[in-house]
Amino acid sequence: MAGSALKRLMAEYKQLTLNPPEGIVAGPVDEENFFEWEALITGPEETCFEGGVFAAKLTFPSDYPLSPPKMKFTCDIFHPNIYSDGRVCISILHAPGDDPMGYESSAERWSPVQSVEKILLSVVSMLAEPNDESAANVDAAKTWRDNRARFNEIAHQTVRKSLGL
Amino acid sequence: MKSLLLTFGSLALTAGVVANAYMQNKQFYPSVVYITKSSPSMAVLYVQAFVCVILMGKLMRKIFFGQLRAAEMEHLIERSWYAVTETCLAFTVFRDDFSPRFVALFTLLLFLKCFHWLAEDRIDYMERSPIISWLFHIRALSLLAFLACSDVFFINHAYYHTLIKGASVQLVFGFEYAILLMVLLHIFVKYVLHTVDVQNENPWENKAIYLLYTELLLGFIKVVLYMLFLAIMVKVHTFPLFAIRPMYLTMRVFKKALNDVVMSRRAIRNMNTLYPDATPEELSASDVCIICREEMVSSCKKLPCNHIFHKSCLRSWFQRQQSCPTCRMDIIHSPRPQSPQAAQPAAPAAPPQQPPVPPFPAAAFPGFPAAFPGAAWPPQHPPASSSASVASSTSTTTTSFSTSASTSDTANNPFMPGMMPPMPFMPPFMMPPMSFGMSPPPVPPADFSGLTDEELRAMEGEERENLEARVQCLRNIHTLLDAAMLQIQQYTTVVSRMGGLDTASTSTVWSAERPTASAMSSKSSNIATSNSSDPMMAAPNPVDTSNKPDDSEVLEGAVGYTVPTETVLPSGESGAAQQDSEDSSELGEIRRRRLEKFSNKMQEQAKTDNNGGTPD
Ligand SMILES: [Zn+2]
Ligand SMILES: [Zn+2]
């Protein structure tokens, strides 16, 4: 019997392939290593990211459901809650007690009850509704707050780029 | 390509040097002398030796590891960088012994270190891959054997060298190889544990414990070795600056292992003493363990919040955090210290007519709080024991509740009797979850009109009996809170029993328990704020709202996404992992198809976007 982290990841993968949520594809990069996943997320409809397909990489720790995975967009994306190198900064990906922004209550933090699917859904909603109070990309947060038209324009560019146009 | 060029370049140079020497001397021995005497020739030979070492390393890597993974390579480069720096530092200490032989020995050490690191990474990978081939085992075992032999050989060599010739740079090598041997031992233990785990049909609960204790023991040995090394080096040579970083890291690892062991022991103890085993009915009512997503068949524990998990899963979780994974109820602090915390809001609410009481003990009576945990609060244990009885059945709960109530305070309590009766008889079955969440049940009397003037007077003043009267009053409040707690448990038991039939209602149970948890752990007045002050993910989101039931959405505000789908895994499929690995090729197929479909869709979308949107 394999390790519990591996088993849980396989179970989640199975679940995701059998019942894929709308607009999200995710799975291991390599079937021999279940601890590195790739995910494709479609930009939520009726937002400035609509139509885009954004690729991200998920890296799971060996004690997986106990510690959260890390998520990093591998494509360009300009968003208040995504660092310029692509790392995603949302509360669900932080274990309680590790709080880079110092504002999150532990209720929204990582716990084994979360899953890849919930992370990805949270990311979709984060795309739809940036949280500029805890900006990972200050520049993007500023633009989003002060110059929405400009933000939408940049977002549209990233959408086109993500589609390879 | 570049390395190939370098290799051939050095090979050609060496050949040139050797040929030149032979041409000039025509005989073997004189040519050797000639080469050793000429510095340029020696330089070429050193370069050649270096290239040979690297080629050797590549060959061994090919034999023992095959292709290195990107993560392994990254790891290796990072660690070698530090190792090289430290070696250079070591050179400064031993500049008197500096010789080609010395450099060669250090290179060899570095070389073997690299293989230890790679072996470690490779063995750790066993936990990550579903497929472990025979080749993997053969490679791992032969590599471990080879490394063990070389370590032992070099330790031996260093030992005798030091015995015969006294302290020299061999001391450093001896210690380095001793440390490496410990690392190797650790790797070997991990390998054995992983292998046993892979062969086993059932999850091996104690593996984590064994790993932890191995780490602790070997960490301890390493720390001792480093200490010894430091002491000897300071005595013989000078302060070994180059050993500081690894020593610090080793100590940190050891400290962490120690901490983990302590936490783990505490978790196990709590598990065994505080929480009841889940009964078979409860197991059949709940479907999967939220931690590992597997069915719960046996050895499961139930937390005070009525959530059930595998014992082993819960234990590993408690090593990190002492809260319920599902509802985040604070497990360690809620069953017991909950009483003083919870009493706090009640006390200020109660005494508007009697000023001396209000601010709970702390500042006013310095000596007082110390007596609290044991003496002043006898009904500490009822919560634990009664929660145990909640597990068995609801009816016994009622009885055990009334006993605990009567044993604690009813007798000498003026306003308790009036308060008590409604509670056991309050029909928890009738209460809808929503109304429950809104109004925390047993509210202590808002004013003390129920108290006689005598009783009030008894509580005024600073004398001992006044204090006792106040403590008594607080105890009463405490009992009330216990009652509330019990009722909540009763309630959740009932709901989970009703909801255990299908997964849809399980999720409502879950969401119904959230306010419960906050009501218990914090002041009731805080419920509203704690629910509304969670802005982050609480923002309603267009993608998700469509398929979410409204009521759970309302209750769920605090957690954002943690709501519904959690336990929808069809129960049949979370079974054997063997099946899983057999299925994985089929899964791969599904995934490929899915990806294909997805990318087609994207292309279509891109086309329409291109045609319609932008005419350039
Ligand atoms: Zn479990
Ligand atoms: Zn719970």
From TrEMBL, chain A:
Its EC number is 2.3.2.23. Interacts with AUP1 (via C-terminus); the interaction recruits UBE2G2 to lipid droplets. Interacts with ubiquitin ligases AMFR/gp78 and RNF139/TRC8; recruitment to lipid droplets by AUP1 facilitates interaction of UBE2G2 with AMFR and RNF139, leading to sterol-induced ubiquitination of 3-hydroxy-3-methylglutaryl coenzyme A reductase and its subsequent proteasomal degradation. InterPro entries: Ub_conjugating_enzyme, UBC, UBQ-conjugating_AS, UBQ-conjugating_enzyme/RWD. The active site is at C89 (glycyl thioester intermediate). Residues 4-164 form the UBC core domain. One of its GO terms (biological process) is ERAD pathway. Pfam families: UQ_con. It catalyses: S-ubiquitinyl-[E1 ubiquitin-activating enzyme]-L-cysteine + [E2 ubiquitin-conjugating enzyme]-L-cysteine = [E1 ubiquitin-activating enzyme]-L-cysteine + S-ubiquitinyl-[E2 ubiquitin-conjugating enzyme]-L-cysteine. Keywords: ATP-binding, Nucleotide-binding, Transferase, Ubl conjugation pathway. It comes from Ridgeia piscesae (Tubeworm). The keyword Transcription does not apply. Signal peptide: none annotated. The keyword ATP-binding applies. PANTHER family: UBIQUITIN-CONJUGATING ENZYME E2. This is Ubiquitin-conjugating enzyme E2 G2. GO terms for molecular function: ATP binding; ubiquitin conjugating enzyme activity. Belongs to the ubiquitin-conjugating enzyme family. Accepts ubiquitin from the E1 complex and catalyzes its covalent attachment to other proteins. In vitro catalyzes 'Lys-48'-linked polyubiquitination. Involved in endoplasmic reticulum-associated degradation (ERAD). Required for sterol-induced ubiquitination of 3-hydroxy-3-methylglutaryl coenzyme A reductase and its subsequent proteasomal degradation.
From TrEMBL, chain B:
Its main location: endoplasmic reticulum. It is a multi-pass membrane protein. Residues 1-19 form the signal peptide. It is found in: Endoplasmic reticulum membrane. It catalyses: S-ubiquitinyl-[E2 ubiquitin-conjugating enzyme]-L-cysteine + [acceptor protein]-L-lysine = [E2 ubiquitin-conjugating enzyme]-L-cysteine + N(6)-ubiquitinyl-[acceptor protein]-L-lysine. The keyword Transferase applies. GO terms for molecular function: ubiquitin protein ligase activity; zinc ion binding. Residues 348-361 have a biased composition (Pro residues). One of its GO terms (biological process) is ERAD pathway. Keywords: Endoplasmic reticulum, Membrane, Metal-binding, Signal, Transferase, Transmembrane, Transmembrane helix, Ubl conjugation pathway, Zinc, Zinc-finger. Its EC number is 2.3.2.27. Residues 335-347, 362-415, 516-533 have a biased composition (Low complexity). The keyword Protein transport does not apply. Residues 289-328 form the RING-type domain. Residues 596-607 have a biased composition (Basic and acidic residues). Pathway: Protein modification; protein ubiquitination. SMART domains: RING (SM00184). One of its GO terms (cellular component) is endoplasmic reticulum membrane. Belongs to the HRD1 family. This is RING-type E3 ubiquitin transferase. It comes from Ridgeia piscesae (Tubeworm).
